[in-house]
Amino acid sequence: MSLLGRNYNKELNSLDHRSQSPPESSSSTTSENVHPAGEAGLSMMQTLIHLLKCNIGTGLLGLPLAIKNAGLLVGPVSLLATGVLTVHCMVILLNCAHHLSQRLHKTFVNYGEATMYSLETCPNAWLRTHAVWGRYTVSFLLIITQLGFCSVYFMFMAGSLQQMVEEAHVTSNICQPREILVLTPILDTRFYMLTILPFLILLVFIKNLKVLSIFSTLANITTLGSMALIFEYIMQGIPHPSDLPLMANWKSFLLFFGTAIFTFEGVGMVLPLKNQMKHPQQFSFVLYLGMSIVIVLYICLGTLGYMKFGSDTQASITLNLPNCWLYQSVKLMYSTGIFFTYALQFHVPAEIIIPFVISQVSESWAQLVDLSVRSALVCLTCVSAIVIPHLDLVISLVGSVSSSALALIIPPLLEIIILHSEDMSYVTIAKNIMISILGLLGCIFGTYQALCELTQPVNHSMANSTTIYA
Fold it and tell me: What is the β-pairing status of strands 182-183 and 466-467?
């Protein structure tokens, strides 16, 4: 998911758990307040903007390294294939939800409910009895995914802050390409993570989604500005790519798979987003248009970024930018956007976990328990970032473990379960099984490779060493 803030994941979660939270912004409604088509809802342009901001995030910054891990030819082609498969699975999920809503006479069926209701109708008696675990599984995967995003945010903010602070004395007004000159950090990234921690704890104490929507708007503005500057730089003076490999080795390609799936994690918000449109029948056009823009943006940034920086490509493209005040401002803007988006991403696991914990204590303790759990979850993401300081590997791990299940594995299986008794063709069944197997293999081998890389010894003080121009 994304830096721009998957606002509708919160609404998905509100539907899944019957949250009583108010709507996030004046332009959206919670999934509980389902409006019929034709009443006040999102226009096509509003839906397109939200779709874009739900898919453009921190994973985008790691795409040049992902292309490096796959190869200059294999990378863009594989990224295109991943995007096409992900969009196809989004369409499958939309069709399954629509079919179930008609069958069950419901206005709206969300991801978790679609999983539960489909299992209730499957031929296997054991699965029918334990259908509710389908809903729990989707919620668990959302928790893992969102907390993984939050850990990635910690690492990105700490790495960018470290670079800005410790290069301040050599930052100039003249923008020159970076050369490989290692600058030994005065303080390692763990110090910067701990510095950010109390401010994020205070931020997540804000429960009003209308207030958080203000931060989301600020994140959007800073992100758009920083992306414009990034593209302006990487499109200048691109070296000839003759020395770059067209295909990388298979081990690094597994890391590419996790990063690619991480960036395309938008499947969880398509259902509530369609439901909130003024004319839901137009959502298919918006989905194809929006995801086409996203795929082109991903391929362009990943490919141009790798061609620009070559073997020196770092985990985040912002760490390759020149050491001048103009491009230091890019890191500042992107980090500011990520800081405010943290609370938006954090809302999903918080609204799943906190109501359950509060239900176990008396009302007099509810407020204290609420704040304590929020603080503990933020600390958990901080500890995870400290223990695993590799931004690129964490992105790949989260993408392989949970994003692949939500985006590729579950939707095709849901279609088979729901429509198997309605003359589904063998070609469609075979196609869905192949997609799910591909997602499962990517999940298994991508997770294995990421864990192998993560178990290698790490020098924390050098984990985010900075480079300056000579």
Answer: antiparallel
Six-digit token string for 135: 């809903």
Question: In 327-350, which positions are buried (b, 16+ CB within 10 angstroms) versus exposed (e)?
Answer: bbbbbbbbbbbbbbbbbbbbbbbb
Joined together, the tokens standing for residue 203 give 């931020």
Task: Tell me what the pLDDT averaged over the chain comes to.
Answer: 78
How do residues 352-374 score in pLDDT, each as one tens digit?
888 889 988 888 888 899 999 99
Backbone angles phi, psi at 250, to 5 degrees: -65, -30
Nearest-angstrom CA–CA distance, 189 and 391: 12
Which residue do the tokens 């099984």 mark? 433
Q: What is the DSSP letter of 42?
A: B
**How far is Cα of residue 342 from the mean position of the Cα atoms in its chain?**
12
Structure tokens at 206: 């804000």
**CB-based contact 467:179 (threshold 8 Å):** yes
Phi, psi of 175 (to 5 degrees): -90, 110
262 near 151, Cβ under 8 Å?
no
Give the whole-angstrom CA distance, residue 455 versus residue 444: 17
Structure token pair of residue 249 = 């080795």
pLDDT band at 255 (very low <50, low <70, confident <90, very high): confident
Q: Which helix (H) or strand (E) holds 156?
A: helix 132-166
Cβ neighbours for 424, distance < 8 A, ≥ 6 positions apart: 415, 416
Tokens of 93: 């999920």
Q: Residue 183's beta-bridge partner residues?
A: 466
Q: Which residues pair with 466 in a beta bridge?
A: 183
| Cα-to-chain-centroid distance, residue 272 | 17
Residue range 276-286, pLDDT digits in tens: 788 888 888 99
- The residue type of 271 is L
SS3 state at 308: helix
With tokens 């073997």, the residue in question is 311
Q: Kindly report, residue by residue over 48-94, the tens digit of the pLDDT.
A: 877 876 677 667 888 898 898 888 898 899 999 999 999 999 999 99
pLDDT in tens, 104-123: 888 888 788 888 988 888 88
pLDDT for the residue numbered 37: 42
Residue 310 has pLDDT above 80, yes or no: yes
pLDDT tens digits, 378-413: 999 999 888 876 766 777 777 777 778 888 899 999
Residues contacting residue 397 through CB under 8 Å, at least 6 positions apart: 148, 258, 388, 446, 447, 450, 451, 454
For 173, other C-beta atoms within 10 Å of its C-beta total 7
- Do the Cβ atoms of 12 and 272 come closer than 8 Å? yes
What one-letter code names the amino acid at 414? L
Alpha-carbon distance 286 to 94, whole Å? Answer: 13
What does each C-alpha distance from 145 to 110, 141, 246 come to in angstroms? 18, 6, 31
